[in-house]
Amino acid sequence: DGGITQSPKYLFRKEGQNVTLSCEQNLNHDAMYWYRQDPGQGLRLIYYSQIVNDFQKGDIAEGYSVSREKKESFPLTVTSAQKNPTAFYLCASVPRTGGRETAGNTIYFGEGSWLTVV
Amino acid sequence: AQSVTQLGSHVSVSEGALVLLRCNYSSSVPPYLFWYVQYPNQGLQLLLKYTSAATLVKGINGFEAEFKKSETSFHLTKPSAHMSDAAEYFCAVSNTGNQFYFGTGTSLTVIP
Known about the structure:
The structure holds 2 protein chains of 2 kinds. Chain A contains no helices and 11 strands. By secondary structure, chain A is mainly beta. In chain B, strand 4 (32-38) and strand 5 (44-50) form a beta hairpin. Chain B is built from no helices and 11 strands. Chain B has strands at residues 3-7, 10-14, 19-26, 32-38, 44-50, 56-58, 64-68, 73-78, 87-94, 100-102, 106-111. In chain B, the strands form 2 sheets. In chain B, strands 2, 4, 5, 9, 10 and 11 form a 6-stranded mixed sheet that branches. The A-B interface holds A 4, 6, 31, 33, 40-43, 50, 88, 90, 92, 94, 96-100, 102-112, 114 and B 9, 32, 34, 36, 41-46, 49, 51-52, 90, 92, 94-98, 100, 102-105.
């Protein structure tokens, strides 16, 4: 079945350590996104990418990095510069982006990954 | 700029009662509006979306929402709540399909 796969589901990070969350989609979607979810704060955009080899910062990009070397993959690295990384991370994708013909596109989500600092 | 406001971070209803979750949007262009549901430790699933075809939108699991331009609202309703409806609900707005703006969510509790 087509979908968005995030791994691992649960990840523990030590202080000063970088960790990478994986996101893979087999939906042939152009755009991919990373959101962070904290209780009571909804979803906050970290990074997004509309095409391969290109990505843009979202509202809370500091302390995070991404790459988009393949259309189906958009890994997120949480660096040691992110001082409060404990959260639920959601990867998402959209079929196509840009222009009026893509208006109303639905955004689809993976199952999420929990990151905890220990 | 676009945004959504969900009134009420927590809503409790009795099983069988009407569910009403409120969402107001702000958009400088005709909006595309969505409702998503999130169960614990899972991603968001699309309930329904409005793309200007009809003001009353029917979604999955018996939910529906009505787009009211004059009130800039897109409230979610369900005539009779079921225990399985207990979850977090998010309203979202998008522009041309690139950017999505989510509300802070409403946690629905269903009381047996």
